Amino acid sequence: MNKLFFIVALAFFLSSNTEKKLSDNKIYLQENYIKIDKTDPLYTKGRNIFKRDCAACHYIGMDLLGTAPPLGGITKLRKKDWLYKYTRNSYQMYEQGDKIAKEIRSKKSWGLMTSFPNLTDSDLDAIYYFVEKRYEMTKKGIPVEK
Ligand code: HEC
């Protein structure tokens, strides 16, 4: 009888202990996220502009298709000049026959992307820094901030 009680108590102790470990892990990820968030001004700047100008169409986790393609990894796929010009006025580039712009629009009948002629180079530096940082975080399982 005593032995049975001991086994039940041990099982209970072990299961509550693993639960605690899981939630510790969650809190750790959350703290980790907030740490990057608060101590990195470029990240914060990029996130604010992204939320204001891009997140309506491009998923902020950077890995899923929204009404626009996911942007994670884009800085490795395109040249910086192209990316900045495209963000400022993608449709003009399409109209002028830019090869990549035409290729993107030939694959799928996308809606039109808004133009952002007022974004400065430093705004765009911050946006694309945020895009790649956020993408790395998503790949590590760090949840998107609400
Ligand atoms: C109204 C919706 C909308 C908004 C807002 C928007 N986009 Fe887009 N974006 C699109 C669509 C649709 C495409 C795909 C078709 C195209 O390129 O025209 C696209 C494509 C892109 C591409 C090209 C991807 C590639 O494969 O090269 C980049 C880069 C991009 N967007 C960046 C941005 C950034 C940065 C912002 C915010 C400053 C932004 N977009 C805001 C809809 C949007």
From TrEMBL:
MF terms (GO), sorted A to Z: electron transfer activity; heme binding; metal ion binding
Keywords per UniProt: Heme, Iron, Metal-binding
A Pfam family matched in the record: Cytochrom_C
PROSITE patterns: CYTC
Domain Cytochrome c positions: 41-135
The keyword RNA-binding is annotated on this UniProt entry: no
Superkingdom field: Bacteria
SUPFAM superfamilies (UniProt xref): Cytochrome c (SSF46626)
Protein name: C-type cytochrome
Naturally occurring in which organism (per UniProt): Flavobacterium resistens
